[in-house]
Amino acid sequence: PANLYAHIELQARAMSSSNSNSGATQILTDNHMHNFWYIYFDMSMVIKEYERAVIFRLGRIVSKRAKGPGLIFILPCTDIFTRVDLRTVSCNIPPQEVTTVQRASSKHVGLYRKEDGNILSTSSLQSLLSILDNATDKWGIKVARVEIKDVRIPMEMQRSMAAEAEATREARAKVRSTSEGEMNASKALKQASTVLIEAPAALQLRYLQTLTTLATEKNSTIVFPLPMTLLQGFCNHKRKTNSN
């Protein structure tokens, strides 16, 4: 029995020693796995579909093209990356008043750097937008849309614009009334010509009315041709007299 107890004690010590060794190995393995996953997640980044990543390694760009979308890897100690959003983003910037050549104050949303304000006063609004497009192209930025939120016009310019609009409306009304009057007059002349063609005596009556109007204007001598029809009447009367 003493030997049996000694044998059992030796087996128990061996089992405890093996269990302690396996436990230490398990702990070491767990630590390695933990460090692996920590380094893996620290080196990997997920870039969304509408994003791109620009990676700088020791201050220099790693690639000429941006990374993404998808899973990318970086070196945590030497790499710094920046996410770039490709979506159209609206941002509010404190307004900077600029007076154009039309003397209209406008507010724009965008990036600007003011160097000489006197140059802006000699340009129109369209030329300013064109200059803005040319300035942003070299930075890889495309201006999708520019909205004018507020335009303030001086009072004297408002009065001049109102006077110009009123003159334009009056000119249009005058042209319309003149055209309508000419149309009505042409219709009346057409009707009168139709009546004169159908009744030749009406032409003689109109001739006599014109003579009456001319006689009542001024005390002056008026020379007018004698109608051939009147001479023809005298000739016919003379022929009848001679025949008798």
Automatic annotation (TrEMBL):
Pfam families attached to this UniProt entry: Band_7 (PF01145)
InterPro entries: Band-7_stomatin-like (IPR043202), Band_7 (IPR001107), Band_7/SPFH_dom_sf (IPR036013)
One GO CC term on file: plasma membrane
SMART domains cross-referenced by the UniProt entry: PHB (SM00244)
SUPFAM superfamilies, per the entry: Band 7/SPFH domain
Domain named Band: residues: 42-165
PANTHER family membership: BAND 7 PROTEIN-RELATED (PTHR10264), STOMATIN-LIKE PROTEIN 3 (PTHR10264:SF49)
Record family assignment: Belongs to the band 7/mec-2 family.
UniProt-recorded name of the protein: Stomatin like 3
Organism field: Pelusios castaneus
